[in-house]
DNA sequence: TCCCGGTTCCAACAAAAGTTAAGGACGCCA
DNA sequence: TGGCGTCCTTAACTTTTGTTGGAACCGGGA
């Protein structure tokens, strides 16, 4: 699989992307930043394509992505898998496990990852101590929820090429906040199989759609990296309105 | 449109379905029940097919359904509409507006509704006074989120007949909690157009699928009411695992 | 009562997406 | 450096779903 540019992550940068994200989407007081920076976090390395928490499990920790990409997914009895969301550094994809005790989906790595684990217990205590941090995290889970709503629209209503473009732009706008864009290109470390699972189409069809975007000079996807060829066409195709990301405290 | 059996709802039953729901999914202390029963609620009647809050608006209240059915949806520029969820009495479909200030989707009635409005301000004060009620509501928004995840799977991975059966069973299991089942039948007041919008298919195809369920003796849908004809086939087709509804405090 | 508008239902055809199968590219490792 | 496994790519064919257009049904209001 694709390799994320994983270097040793110094301990003080583990929380950096999280704080940057919270600052962008919610505003956050200095006291709250201190609380978050004081949070005890157990850091562990995960290889690519590895489950972190599984559907049906009872989680005792929440998982902060320090580096690498993760995805959440559900697999139905027929064996088909649906990817529900893609996650990037600074996010806590399983924050919901704090109150939803049994996992109703899988969380797994896409690339090799550095993950920080925070005990539920610790978070619960923090919430009691600081209602403002609790609100911050609550809002974070609500933004997560808003992203699911848009994902439903994507899979339910847009033609396949627009679906792909939309997922690409959503990822880009989130990577922008944590300063992970590289000119007109950015990482999207999914195989075509996984892209299919994200868009609700087969891998073969995903391939057709990727080819189409390339041939029409809209965007290129090569070895887990998206390069935008024509920004105007790209935006138009994706039908993207980023309001649902709530990337501003006023939204 | 279909008419919900809307009778005058006495003031003391407005909170009843909410309390029953919270009791089922989260457990709830007597003190919390008292807090909720003391909540000032402004009751209003809405006709069928009427917007309650619109995409882009800033809400100042949350809306508790006392009677009738509502739906949340998003409409994209091409004019296509996706229904994201169906809501029943006792639910607060726009609880998320407490922290997501600008609506990213529409909430509208399906049938004539009795709605109770609770000021954001009131809820925020309640949260400060009672962290346990805050957790209760937080968990409620997380269950909402879990339902979106399953909806993504439904639209993304299941064949159209299974999608329909799945939505039907989900609705049934939620109606069960508030004791709104009637033997082997229950209300599902959507037009075929709306069913299509919920499943990510066209109304014509929705019609084909409904016809198929009827012809195969699985379930019948007539005038906004589902009648299950063969429970075994119905469950098998729907591929339903209700864990994601978290209808127990231990889940 | 009859008409009207919104549903429901259906058929014929078109387009999108799934299935199957197979060859080619590429990185990894022995 | 050669072989292996994974991923990418494509073609041919099938199935599902969308589109268009029209008929039948049904309830409510004039």
Task: Describe the fold and architecture.
2 copies of one chain form a homodimer. The first copy, chain A, is of the alpha+beta class. The first copy, chain A, has 2 domains: 11-145, Jelly Rolls (Sandwich), CATH 2.60.120; 155-245, Orthogonal Bundle (Arc Repressor Mutant, subunit A). In chain A, 41% of the residues lie in helices and 20% in strands. Chain A contains 8 helices and 10 strands. In chain A, strands 2-6-4-5 form a 4-stranded antiparallel beta sheet. In chain A, strands 1-7-3 form a 3-stranded antiparallel beta sheet. In chain A, helix 3 (120-129) crosses helix 4, helix 5 packs across helix 8 (231-238) and helix 6 crosses helix 7. Mean pLDDT of chain A is 95; it is low at 1-8. At the A-B interface, strand 5 and helix 4 of A face strand 5 and helix 4 of B. Chain A binds a DNA duplex (30 and 30 nucleotides) through helix 7.
Provide a brief overview of the structure.
Two copies of one chain form a homodimer. Helix content of chain A is 41%, strand content 20%.
Please tally the β strands of chain A and state the result: 10
Q: Kindly report the name of the CATH homologous superfamily of the largest domain in chain A.
A: Jelly Rolls
- Span of the ends, CA to CA of chain A: 37 Å
Task: Briefly note the CATH topology name of the largest domain in chain A.
Answer: Jelly Rolls
Task: Map the helices and strands.
The structure is a homodimer of 251-residue chains.
Chain A: H1 16-26, H2 30-37, E1 42-46, E2 51-53, E3 61-67, E4 70-75, E5 81-87, E6 106-109, E7 113-119, H3 120-129, H4 131-157, H5 160-177, E8 185-187, H6 192-199, H7 203-215, E9 219-222, E10 225-228, H8 231-238
Antiparallel strand pairs in A: 1-7, 2-6, 3-7, 4-5, 4-6, 8-10, 9-10
Chain A binds a DNA duplex (30 and 30 nucleotides) through residues 1, 159-160, 191-193, 201-205, 207-208, 210-211.
């Amino acid at each position: 699989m694709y390799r994320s540019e994983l270097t040793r992550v110094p301990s003080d940068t583990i929380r950096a992307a999280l704080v940057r994200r919270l600052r962008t989407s919610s505003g956050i007081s200095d006291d709250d930043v201190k609380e978050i920076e004081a949070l005890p976090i157990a850091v562990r390395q995960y290889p690519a394509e590895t489950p972190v928490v599984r559907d049906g499990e009872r989680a005792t920790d929440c998982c902060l992505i320090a580096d690498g990409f993760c995805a959440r997914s559900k697999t139905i009895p027929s064996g088909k898998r649906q990817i529900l969301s893609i996650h990037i550094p600074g996010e806590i994809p399983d924050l919901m496990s704090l109150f939803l005790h049994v996992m109703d989906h899988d969380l797994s790595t896409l690339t090799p990852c550095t993950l920080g684990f925070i005990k539920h217990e610790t978070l619960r205590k923090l919430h009691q101590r600081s209602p403002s941090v609790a609100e911050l995290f609550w809002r974070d889970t609500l933004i997560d929820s808003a992203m699911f709503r848009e994902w439903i629209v994507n899979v339910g209503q847009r033609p396949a090429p627009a679906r792909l473009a939309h997922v690409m732009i959503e990822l880009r706008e989130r990577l922008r906040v944590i300063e992970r864009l590289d000119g007109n290109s950015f990482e999207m470390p999914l195989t075509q199989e996984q892209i299919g699972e994200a868009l609700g189409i087969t891998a073969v069809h995903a391939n057709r759609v990727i080819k189409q975007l390339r041939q029409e000079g809209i965007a290129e996807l090569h070895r887990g990296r998206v390069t935008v060829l024509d920004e105007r066409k790209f935006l138009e195709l994706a039908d993207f309105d980023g309001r649902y990301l709530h990337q501003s405290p006023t939204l």
